[in-house]
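Need tokens for this chain, all 226 residues.
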Amino acid sequence: MNDIVIQVKNLTKIYTMGMVEVHALDGVTFDIQRGEMVAIMGPSGSGKSTLMNLLGCLDRPTGGTYSLDGEEVSKLSDDQLAEIRNRKVGFVFQSFNLLPRQTSLANVELPMRYSGVGKERAARAKAALVSVGLADRINHRPAELSGGQQQRVAIARALVNNPAILMADEPTGNLDSKSGKEIIQLLLELNKKGTTVIIVTHDPTIAEQTRRIIRLRDGLIEGAAA
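Here are the structure tokens for all 226 residues:
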């Protein structure tokens, strides 16, 4: 079994703005092993958001190759990318992105609706909520939850389809320091159980708790700390 879950080779992304070409990524190469916890860091304009969009199958590169869980995804169509995203990538965003009128359970069930899961849906959603410590908040709506609890619902939703990778984009950005520490601790615990976690963060305190840091500057990898 291949232990490499992400394989990126000479990845480039060029945006055309009028007569100007902007090289957001300029030939990035790295691997991420299954079960790793990796931070992606860099100043504004370094290319980290572009890289996250490519790793999360939200966009396609201009050049180079990207394999996710053994599948080459660089040249897939929009529909194929959407299907891979739903199966292979769990997203956790700074702003939670929960449906305000739906319960925690209904929010976590959402990815399974898109992937065609039927009668198992409620049981799997409940199990995911239990796994993030929300057994007593299954029928609560987002307005009835704290910020930290809403982010736990978002993590449960990200995990419910058993993705190859969990991508967290500034997951503590909208939380107070206590809730933020609890969310990072939860991600660390999930990683110890085998989940591959990639965190995009500006916070060196968070990055230093991961196994490896990929640092970007001007579209290139500046250096990585093991």
